[in-house]
Write a structure and sequence with these properties.
The chain is α/β, with parallel strands linked by helices. It has one domain (about 50-240): 2-Layer Sandwich (Thymidylate Synthase, Chain A). The protein is about 40% helix and about 25% strand. It contains eight helices and ten strands. It has helices at about 5-20, 60-70, 75-95, 110, 125-145, 170-175, 205-230, 245-250, and strands at about 1-5, 25, 30, 35, 45-55, 150-155, 185-190, 195-200, 205, 230-245. A hairpin with a 2-residue loop joins strand 3 (about 30) and strand 4 (about 35). The longest helix has 22 residues, at about 205-230. It starts with a strand and ends in a 6-residue tail after the last helix.
Length: about 260
């Protein structure tokens, strides 16, 4: 696994790996949309991909640097909108009450409006998935400093009623394009040698649309939990089953 000391350096190298080593894959669905016959949804994909960032420094300037790099084919006003989205989405995730649709989508409404239902809500929000678990994870790590159970589940996070048989979650029922399924699997926070190490696992990540946002939100969460567990920020480790970019988004990059 490659280890970086700067977030922007990691993002640049991830992009290079995707362009140089990605294979051609055309999925049948993208969330709840059928795209098998749409050439724009052909992808370059890296499978089972990960990296680590150690001794990095977080700042809003660093966030802007990452966003400006990944979204360099867009105009500055859109780059600013993405940064505002990151700030508001994180605020939604750590607010006292989980929210749907929340406030962040307004900064990228051209992306998110297509997923809103007739009620003016999303099938789920990350705020709804993360918020109920956050205080418990912080309490676990403050109480048992060496715990391996500091996990915030995002995928399949519908708690079944007490039953003799395990029950399938809504996320399982929505597979195959039936409904939207979270791309993130879980966050795991562990305190080791006085530092809060953070592991972020995803099943799938769209590099040109979501990767920068997902990484920056995870880094913010690492700092948030480190603050409330009174620890230093340690390493950040990322893993995804599928890192990909769509042809429709790569035209300006000259990949296809």
């Amino acid at each position: 696994m490659r280890i970086y000391t700067r977030v922007t350096e990691a993002v640049r190298e991830v992009e290079r790996d995707l362009w140089e080593m990605g294979i051609d894959v055309h999925p049948q669905t993208m969330q709840d949309k059928a795209v098998a016959d749409d050439e724009g949804f052909a992808t370059k994909e890296l499978q089972a991909y990960g990296f680590k960032i150690a001794d990095y420094e977080w700042s809003e300037d660093m966030e802007r640097e990452v966003i400006d790099y990944v979204f360099r084919a867009t105009n500055p006003s859109y780059q600013e909108a993405v940064h505002n989205y990151v700030k508001q989405e994180f605020a939604d995730r750590v607010a006292m009450d989980a929210s749907n649709p929340g406030n962040a989508y307004l900064h990228r409404d051209e992306l998110w409006n297509q997923f809103m239902d007739a009620r003016g809500m999303f099938h789920y929000t990350y705020s709804e998935r993360i918020n109920p678990q956050l205080a418990g994870v912080i309490k676990e790590l403050r109480t048992r400093r060496e715990s391996r159970q500091g996990i915030i589940n995002i995928h399949s996070n519908i708690w079944p009623q007490r039953s003799e048989r395990a029950q399938l979650s809504a996320d399982w029922a929505h597979k195959g394009g039936v409904g939207r399924v979270p791309c993130s699997l879980h966050y795991q926070a562990m305190i080791r040698k006085g530092s809060l190490d953070f592991i972020y696992s995803m099943r799938s990540c769209d590099f040109l649309t979501h990767f920068a946002v997902d990484i920056l939100l995870a880094l913010r969460m690492q700092h948030y939990i480190a603050h409330y567990t009174e620890t230093q920020v340690g390493t950040f480790t990322y893993f995804t089953g599928s890192l990909h970019a769509y042809q429709k988004d790569m035209k300006d990059r000259g990949v296809f």
